[in-house]
Design brief:
alpha/beta, five-stranded parallel sheet
Length: 204
């Protein structure tokens, strides 16, 4: 592959830091079937995505509590115990990212993240301040895989789309980046990431 990559863009959740809502909720709702029902019908993925798009937690909680008043404590537990959902980072991937930065490569981040929880994550994981910058969906009111968020990121950081590579664990987000004219790879682990980057002439 002869494409020259000038810009490397990392996703964050499930690429740099671990994320699993079941970690606190295995305590909040011990019964596995009930917990599965709760995530499928109350604090759903689609509900959580709207916080990534910029909706406030107060508004999000009020919406669900109006529909499920008997679940108020469990609903509020989602934000209250959010810090337990992100217990650690992936040392090998962070090492790759930091190595790229130390080599002088242009590294930024593009993430679907609520504004307030992202700032909390930066405090807990200082390496999230090391790249040149970040586009947070909750700040800009756009979410992946909407092509508009990739275009906004490229404009904000003066990226040349055809010279940009994006790393994300979500296939739809990878396809969104490609639709914006970027190169993109599906993240499944450190070994594949090294191989994928090497195919673009980036050795880590």
């Amino acid at each position: 592959m002869t494409t020259q990559i000038k810009h490397i863009v990392f996703d964050i959740g499930k690429v740099l830091i671990h994320y699993d809502p079941n970690l606190p909720f295995s305590r909040v709702i011990p019964d596995e079937d009930e917990r599965a029902w709760f995530f499928a019908n109350v604090c759903t993925h689609d509900w959580n995505v709207e916080q990534d798009r910029g909706r406030t937690w107060a508004e999000a909680e009020a919406l669900l509590i109006a529909e499920h008043p008997e679940r108020e404590e469990q609903i509020r537990s989602f934000r209250k115990h959010w810090h337990e959902m992100v217990p650690h980072h992936y040392e090998d991937i962070v090492a790759i990212m930091e190595g790229l930065i130390s080599e002088g490569r242009d590294v930024t981040m593009l993430t679907n993240f609520a504004s307030d929880t992202f700032r909390e994550a930066q405090e807990r994981f200082p390496f999230l301040t090391k790249p040149r910058g970040v586009t947070v969906s909750g700040d800009v009111g756009l979410i992946k895989p909407d092509v508009a968020i990739y275009e906004a990121h490229a404009k904000s950081f003066d990226l040349e789309p055809s010279a940009t590579i994006f790393i994300d664990d979500s296939l739809p987000n990878v396809e969104g980046a490609k639709a914006a004219g970027w190169h993109a790879v599906h993240f499944t682990g450190a070994d594949k990431l090294r191989s994928d980057l090497a195919s673009y002439g980036i050795k880590v």
